[in-house]
Specification:
2,3-Dihydroxybiphenyl 1,2-Dioxygenase, domain 1; five-stranded mixed beta sheet; 2 helices; 9 strands
Length: about 130
Amino acid sequence: MLGDQPVYPILLSTDMAASRAFYHDRLGLQVLGETEERIVLKCGDGTRLLISRSTVGTSDTQTQVAWRVPDIRAAIADLRARGVTIQEYRPPDPVTDDGVADMGHSWAAWFVDPDGNVLSVIQPKP
């Protein structure tokens, strides 16, 4: 049953204004709803991303949300043009070259929101 239903990831934010500026103004995501406690953003067809107010934020450093893109280089160029810093990693993390890591099954690149949530764009390999 759940495999047929949309999923809405929730990220934590200690600064809702900074989160709104990042996700709406910088990434260009459409705000579908907003209160003092949450922001609902549109991502793709039928997908939503929720940003929820938190007093502690997150301390996790692994990828928390990934967008599947058809062309990772174009996605990275767009993000950089919007002022987003693409992370560079060295061993023991996946090694990046100009922001892109070859994960075997896909290519991936990472960036971080104002609250330290690690976000990614991935392009599956053919």
